[in-house]
Amino acid sequence: MSDALTDLQGVISDYFDALHHCHTGLLKKVFHPKAICATADEAPLLYRTMDEYVPVVAARQSPASRGEERRDAIDEIQLAGDNTAFARVRCSIGDKDFTDFLTFVRDGGRWQIMAKIFQIRPRTEGGA
Hints:
Layout: H1 3-21, H2 24-30, E1 31-39, E2 46-49, H3 50-59, E3 73-79, E4 84-93, E5 96-107, E6 110-122
Helix pairs in contact: 1-2
């Protein structure tokens, strides 16, 4: 496996940890300061900058503190060049399952999420 894929897997692992524990310091580490977060599953379209998104996560009760089982997975990672990548990942928070499309940039030698576009699905009985 290439160093880039290993590095990206590490960033995604930190991303999952940040969401599961509502760890805003780690969240700020994995996201580029100019990143955006959006979904079309809400009306009107939800669009947040990092200055708007981080406080939302900070205000949540963490899934870890509620004893929620972790349901996160990396479905795919694609490299688009030396400094650009894409990943499709899945995770769960509360009674919702999420599919996240994460676009990464390598800035200053470090991979960070530049855009998170996500889909929300209510969890069905018995599965993710």
